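Sequence design from tokenized structure. All designs in this work follow the same two-part layout: the structure record, then the generated sequence. An example of the structure record is given first.
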């Protein structure tokens, strides 16, 4: 009811100084009450017809001719027209809004022109005043709502784009995870199901033959051993298949298993390539790797985690000092830690798209029952830690050692 308040204040001021306005009704007379009713109607239309901004705009604009009894203060009725115009433009209608805006401006111009003529002004003056008021009632509100609406649409578009990119990223990660899991499950099924089904059949026959046909039982035992050996060989080949595809085993050559011991060679190659990295070993790491206390898949997972962490350090923190630590002093596990400092002075980190290195680390850790942790350090570097389970308690070690070679 701001318009009613403005009208009341204007009437009070004009009553004190009648020469300031022409045709302004006195407070409490019939023209004043009529104007209050029209302004209240405008307010009711704005409050109830919010879902129909076009209709509300035309209705409040049509009330302007009914306010001609206000004379020079007819402008108090323009406030509702401005609010209705702002709402109509901000609603972003599907149909063009120009006809509605022209209609509202015309109604305002007619009302102001009639009020101006009633005040005794000349026709040209009244027409010009009406046109100017019509444009002033619609134009600024239209411009403001257009700017606000455009900004709102831009923010909504950015939010939708970010949400779509997040969904796409999650989908790509999920596809990568599912593809790796499917490959692992398929290979394990093809190898284990083939050999284990044959072993189950032969062991059932051995139970019946051992008393009635000892020689046949011996032959069956040899076949079980042959099947078990073949399955072990195929599982080792599977481990090789789970390695990076850029370093396949030589065709026809021996199967190379990446182990905890091989991390030393990995660090040496990194040193040779210029990465300032050292290796610290604490406890009987070599003994655990050779005894089988840490399974082949777990050793491969540790090797690949170190390999990926060193590659990330070289790519994202060039020139940073790196430390690879193997700790077998804690009973039941081997701690593998790769820690690098912040990038060296003047070094520019790579700005490539994020890959799936951490996803691969998580998958290897879950596959082997290991625990993976990673994050930034207090110095601004990065640390990756993998706790690999071991089936035996490590014995006393010879103390920490450091890899040979000078840092570069």
């Amino acid at each position: 009811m701001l318009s009613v308040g403005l009208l009341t204040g204007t009437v009070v001021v004009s009553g004190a100084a009648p020469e300031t306005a022409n045709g302004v009704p006195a407070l409490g007379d019939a023209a004043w009450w009529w104007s209050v009713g029209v302004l209240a109607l405008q307010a009711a239309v704005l409050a109830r017809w919010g879902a129909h901004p076009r209709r509300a705009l035309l209705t409040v604009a049509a009330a302007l001719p009914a306010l001609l009894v206000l004379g020079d203060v007819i402008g108090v009725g323009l406030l509702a027209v401005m609010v209705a115009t702002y709402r109509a433009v901000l609603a972003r209608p599907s149909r063009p809004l120009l006809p509605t805006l022209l209609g509202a401006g015309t109604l305002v111009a007619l009302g102001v022109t009639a009020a101006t003529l009633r005040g005794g002004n000349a026709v040209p003056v009244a027409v010009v005043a009406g046109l100017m008021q019509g444009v002033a009632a619609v134009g600024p509100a239209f411009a403001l709502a257009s700017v606000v609406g455009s900004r709102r649409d831009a923010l909504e578009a950015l939010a939708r784009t970010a949400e779509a990119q997040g969904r796409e990223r999650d989908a790509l990660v999920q596809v990568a995870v599912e593809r790796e899991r499917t490959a692992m499950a398929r290979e394990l099924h093809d190898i284990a199901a083939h050999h284990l089904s044959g072993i189950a059949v032969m062991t059932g026959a051995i139970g019946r033959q051992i008393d009635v046909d000892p020689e046949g039982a011996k032959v069956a035992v040899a076949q079980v051993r042959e099947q078990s050996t073949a399955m072990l060989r195929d599982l080792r080949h599977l481990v090789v298949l789970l390695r990076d595809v850029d370093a396949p085993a030589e065709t026809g050559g021996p199967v190379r298993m990446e182990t905890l011991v091989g991390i030393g060679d990995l660090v040496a190659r990194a040193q040779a390539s210029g990465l300032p990295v050292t290796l610290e070993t604490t406890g009987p790491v070599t003994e655990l790797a050779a005894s089988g206390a840490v399974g082949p898949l777990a050793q491969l997972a540790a090797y690949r985690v170190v390999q990926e962490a060193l590659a990330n350090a070289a790519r994202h923190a060039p020139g940073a000092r790196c430390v690879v630590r193997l700790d077998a002093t804690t009973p039941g596990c081997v701690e593998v830690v790769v820690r690098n400092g912040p990038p060296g002075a003047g070094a520019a980190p790579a700005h490539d798209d994020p890959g799936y290195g951490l996803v691969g680390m998580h998958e290897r850790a879950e596959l082997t029952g290991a625990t993976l942790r990673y994050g930034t350090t207090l110095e601004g570097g990065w640390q990756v830690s993998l706790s690999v389970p071991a089936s035996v308690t490590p014995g006393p070690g010879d103390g920490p050692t450091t890899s040979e070679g000078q840092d570069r």
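Residues 120 and 376 are 80 Å apart (CA to CA). We note this feature because it recurs in several other targets discussed in the main text.
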